[in-house]
Specification:
The structure is a single chain. This protein has seven helices and five strands. The protein is α/β, with parallel strands linked by helices. The chain has two domains: 105 residues, Response regulator (Rossmann fold); 148 residues, no CATH class. A five-stranded parallel β-sheet has the order 2-1-3-4-5, with helices on both faces.
């Protein structure tokens, strides 16, 4: 990997010398002021900053520049070099962490500087890797917290949906119970009136076939006709109640289907759903029986009407 090295010195000839000694192994960018050095750090992925201690231009000196680099670009390895004595200045810089290493400006042997830059590049790679791992860990933790929050929200929404669906099913069960009572009454009345119509039909047959003297056939037929009319009227009322019950059950069936669709989107639907659906099925079967009874009554009424012609 070819790293980028930033060389900062206010002496052009010193910069040119450093570049000539390091450019074979690394990409070199140069600056003669702290302002341009900070701009280069922002533009390039700088691995190592090699800064002269004593820059006499109007900017800051080398130590101040290295401190700024440490704050804004902590992964950049900071090397301070100087051609003169440094004394307590260097000790303070090393203790503060602004400077990673110090080296005197080479004059003949440049290998120590090259070795130091190589070590700095390796350390830069480790820092980059460490920070990348930490960034991934932090992003994973944040993502996990977000997913956990989303899961809790979905669970709360599902719980609210189940409660609402359960309440609606309770309402449906109450309505089904009332309709079940109405249907039983309707079936009873249908059977009663059907039986009465059959009895009237049998009596009409007896009257028509009777040859006994003293029997007023016309009066008997009128009496049976009146009875037949009463039962037919009551049977019509029962049929109307049956039709209303049928419409109510169909409405409940539609509601059950809608509630079942909502509950299906939740992982664990309440057990009341299955029991209510079973009750609806039983109600449908009872309606079929009631319809058959009404049909029998209608047939009996038609028979009586035919006999009275």
């Amino acid at each position: 990997m070819c790293h980028t090295i930033l060389v900062v010195d206010d002496r052009i000839e010193d910069i040119e010398l450093v570049v000539s000694m390091l450019s074979r192994e690394w990409t070199i960018v140069t600056a003669t002021s702290s302002t341009s050095a900070m701009d280069l750090c922002a533009l390039h992925d700088v691995a190592v900053a090699l800064v002269d201690l004593r820059m006499t231009l109007s900017d800051t000196e080398g130590l101040v520049l290295l401190k700024q680099i440490r704050i804004r670009h902590p992964n950049v390895m900071r090397i301070l070099f100087s051609g003169g004595s440094v004394g307590p200045i260097l000790l303070h810089a090393l203790n503060s962490g602004d400077v990673w290493r110090f080296i005197e400006k080479p004059t003949v042997n440049w290998e120590p500087l090259r070795a130091l830059v190589r070590e700095a590049c390796q350390r830069h790679e480790r820092l980059d890797l460490s920070h990348a791992i930490e960034r991934v860990r932090r992003e994973g933790q944040e993502r996990g917290e977000t997913l956990a929050a989303d899961l809790r929200a979905h669970q709360e929404a599902d719980t609210a949906t189940l409660r609402e669906v359960g309440a609606k099913f309770d309402e449906v069960r109450v309505e089904l119970k009332a309709l079940s009572g109405n249907l039983k009454l309707t079936q009873h009345e249908t059977r009663r009136h059907g039986a009465a119509l059959a009895e009237v039909a049998a009596e009409v047959d007896e009257v028509r076939e009777s040859t006994s003297p003293g029997i007023d056939v016309a009066a008997a037929m009128r009496a049976h006709a009146e009875s037949l009319g009463e039962h037919a009227e009551q049977l019509g009322t029962v049929m109307g109640a049956q039709a209303r019950t049928d419409a109510a059950v169909q409405t409940i069936v539609a509601r059950v289907d809608a509630l079942q669709g909502r509950a299906a989107r939740v992982s664990d639907p309440p057990p009341t759903i299955a029991s209510t659906e079973a009750k609806v099925d039983r109600m449908k079967a009872a309606m079929a029986i009631g319809g058959a009874a009404i049909g029998a009554g209608e047939i009996a009424a038609e028979i009586v009407k035919h006999l009275l012609k």
